[in-house]
Amino acid sequence: MALTQIDNTQTISNATYKVQTDLLTSESGIVIENGTIHLYDGDLKFHANGVINKVANASQLTVDSLNVDPVLSILNTPPGSPTLGDRHLVGTAPTGAWVTKANYIAEWDGSGWVYTTPLNDMIITNTGTSATIRYNGTSWLQWGASVILQNGNTLQATMTIGTNDNYGVKIKTNNLTRLTIATTAITASLPVVLSQETDNTLVYLDGSKAIRTLPIATYPNITELSYVKGATSSVQTQLNAKSPLNVTLDRKTSSYTLVAGDNGKVIEMNVASANTLTVNASLFSAGNQIVISQYGAGQTTITAGAGVTLRSDGGKLKINTQYSIATIIFISATEAYVSGNLAV
After folding, report:
1. In contact, 169 and 181? CB cutoff 8 Å
2. What backbone torsions phi and psi does residue 150 show, to the nearest 5 degrees?
3. CA distance 225 to 249
4. Where do the H-state alpha helices sit in 110-185?
5. What is the pLDDT along the chain (344 residues), one digit of tens a residue?
6. Nearest to 290 by CA among 320, 254, 256
7. What is residue 228's DSSP assignment?
8. Within 10 Å of residue 47's Cβ, how many Cβ atoms?
9. Which helix (H) or strand (E) holds 180?
């Protein structure tokens, strides 16, 4: 049985009956008149054919039993030029003719406003925003999300989508699951597109835990990163283990003591008279090597600094002739081989 409340009347089965809302002390106060409905002791009752009948308990009248027409808007102040049949939900701070009708539904009958008292669980639609709202006994709150999600209309309050138990939520299109929000993880079945970010770049979490792309002016892009595909250890370690295609030439014009930065260089001793090249301890590590050339006429003698042992054929540590070359290969930080065109 659908009831539509219109001011102080109820429509039942397309017939309109008067509702007497006076406080009755007993059912004996019900008017003995067929079709008269009374609100007594929380129940709607009417008399028909000599029998008092209960229609419903007022607290049980929900959306299933009340067919409530939609409203045009939620207002605190009555509109100045309403049209016959206009319905509005009165806000929480009403003024003017609505001053005592907070949360009521007001309908213009052509000469004045008639009101519908909100009942617990009553549900209406605000056609101005396409939002569905429900009366919880105290205030109207947004209820149901389907219209909002389908049409992208405005919300009247924060909308929460989820469950109150241990079950997840699935989002589907074309009857296929696209996103699963479980209790421990979120699984996406489609690519996540960050349209505001730059393509072919690496991503990271910024300070607010948002996903962002790394600027290619500072960091490698995907193409550059692919160059190290197949690396099995530190890239620098692998690069250091490979022979360089080009060496650095460093020409000296007097006796010289090697420094750590000389690793991998060719030291050219361009000195007219006899000169020395000194090797000190703890500057180089196993595998480091340095090439020494005697570019000048003065003979170059390779000398071990304190704590250094130089290993050579027959103890030869002098470069034999001008333009000859010797190579120093370190066994450790304090020991090295010396080989090449050497003399005693």
Report:
1. yes
2. -75, -40
3. 32
4. 146-151
5. 334 333 344 444 434 444 444 444 455 544 444 455 555 555 656 555 555 555 555 544 444 445 468 999 999 999 999 999 999 999 999 999 999 999 999 999 999 999 988 888 888 888 888 778 888 889 998 776 555 565 556 666 676 777 777 888 888 888 888 888 888 888 888 888 888 888 888 888 989 888 888 888 888 888 888 877 777 777 767 766 666 668 899 999 999 999 999 999 999 999 999 999 999 999 999 999 999 999 999 999 999 999 999 999 999 999 999 999 999 999 999 999 999 999 99
6. 256
7. G
8. 18
9. strand 176-181
Residue 58 CB burial class (10 angstroms; 0-12, 13-18, ≥19)? middle
Structure tokens at 16: 């309109």
Sign of CA dihedral 333, 337, 340, 344: positive
Q: In one letter, which amino acid is 298?
A: G
Q: Does domain 250-343 have CATH number 3.40.50.1110?
A: no
CA–CA gap between residue 86 and residue 326 (Å, rounded): 104
DSSP string over 20-89: E-SPPSSGGGS--STT-EEEETTEEEEEETTEEEEEEEGGG--TTTB-PPPBS-EESS--SSPPTT-EEE
Quick one: which of 288, 285, 281, 330 has its CA closest to 305?
A: 281
Between CA 312 and CA 309 the distance in angstroms is: 10
Q: Report yes or no on whether pTM surpasses 0.90.
A: no
Round to whole Å and give the CA distance between 327 and 260. 16
Q: Structure tokens of 125?
A: 């639609």
If you search the block for the tokens 């007993």, which residue do you land on? 26
C-alpha span between 126 and 74 (Å, rounded): 8
The gap from C-alpha 127 to its chain's centroid, in whole angstroms, comes to 33
